[in-house]
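Example S7 (structure tokens).
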């Protein structure tokens, strides 16, 4: 996943389609190739057209006729080759749909001087398949980019609010330190001050530096990382006398450890909160070539159907006293790592959070 979309930009889409059109007209008897597609970034239909240099260029009237699609009397199945009639423009004409978006077709349209052979039809299908996959990647890239930008804006606002509260706590804690001089309670006030400083530092690291290009990626052992977070949450685990099961195997992943720790802390703390006493929480993973699928499950009551579509929304919380930011932050961090995070209910009861991370 990561290698597929890391360097993809919406501005590259037109160049990519033009390159495919140019490659098609290199194959005789194709002398003109058009690719019509929906640009997700510009939110409008686009067209690229390439014509052989030894052919007389189309006049504007002919181009307008092609773009009008009045000749497109039927919508053929995706990736099928259909001959269509183009009045006075070409002896032969073929269309290969690559998709249908917003009720309109995306397609490759070629004009030829003689019937298209079976081998060239297969070549046209391959080109259509490649363009279709690229457009799907572009749509995915655009969706992820928009989602990350929205989350960044929300988290910046949340960070500002949280830091204001932390500043107030820090001020009162420092006043306590001065007021409790030579008192046995001064040490506890100093612990509060130090904790506030650590929280503020972590908040800065997790939110202000959580953009994808600021990730501090280092090789991390997945099992050791999970064990460390379980150890961190041990008091809450012991309070409910929960049984924790994790995979015996491990994997080395390129991660920003501080941020991914926050992801596991948020998901595991939710699993602990909603687990019954003596319940079991499982954290397992499977390695698939360049990716790792991680699943965290609990034996709680599951997620209400009305809550399931909203649990990653900012300020939406199912926990009493919760801020509704934990899962929002977790999802943004995973997206910054070019991964995926989603939740579902298990048929056996309980909830399952799944995330995909690249190796």
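Recovered sequence:
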């Amino acid at each position: 996943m990561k290698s597929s979309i890391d360097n993809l930009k919406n501005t590259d889409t037109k160049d990519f389609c033009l390159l495919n059109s140019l490659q098609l007209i290199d194959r005789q008897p194709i002398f003109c190739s058009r690719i019509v597609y929906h640009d997700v970034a510009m939110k409008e239909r686009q067209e690229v057209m390439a014509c052989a240099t030894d052919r007389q260029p189309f006049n504007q009237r002919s181009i307008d006729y092609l773009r009008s699609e009045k000749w497109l009397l039927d919508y053929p199945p995706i990736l099928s080759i259909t001959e269509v009639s183009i009045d006075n423009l070409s002896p032969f004409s073929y269309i290969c749909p690559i998709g249908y978006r917003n009720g309109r077709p995306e397609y490759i349209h070629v004009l030829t001087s003689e019937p298209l052979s079976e081998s060239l039809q297969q070549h046209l299908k391959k080109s259509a398949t490649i363009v279709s996959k690229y457009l799907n990647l572009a749509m995915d890239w655009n969706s992820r980019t928009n989602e990350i930008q929205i989350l960044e804006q929300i988290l910046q606002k949340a960070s500002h609010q949280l830091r204001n509260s932390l500043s107030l706590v820090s001020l009162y804690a420092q006043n306590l330190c001065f007021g409790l001089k030579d008192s046995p309670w001064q040490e506890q006030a100093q612990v509060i001050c130090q904790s506030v400083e650590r929280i503020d530092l972590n908040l800065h690291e997790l939110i202000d530096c959580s953009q994808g290009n600021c990730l501090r990626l280092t090789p991390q052992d997945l099992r050791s990382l999970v064990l460390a977070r379980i150890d961190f949450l041990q008091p809450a685990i012991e309070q409910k006398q929960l049984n924790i099961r994790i995979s015996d195997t491990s994997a080395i992943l390129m991660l920003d450890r501080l941020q991914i720790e926050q992801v596991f802390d948020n998901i595991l703390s939710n699993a602990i909160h909603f687990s019954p006493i003596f319940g079991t929480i499982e954290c397992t993973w499977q390695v698939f070539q360049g990716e790792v699928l991680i699943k965290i499950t609990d034996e709680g009551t599951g997620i209400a159907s009305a809550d399931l579509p909203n649990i990653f929304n900012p300020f939406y919380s199912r926990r009493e006293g919760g801020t509704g930011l934990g899962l929002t932050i977790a999802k943004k961090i995973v997206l910054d790592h070019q991964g995926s995070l989603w939740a579902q209910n298990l048929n056996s009861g309980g909830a399952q959070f799944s995330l995909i991370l690249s190796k």
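Notes on this example. Residues 1-10 have pLDDT under 50 and may be disordered.
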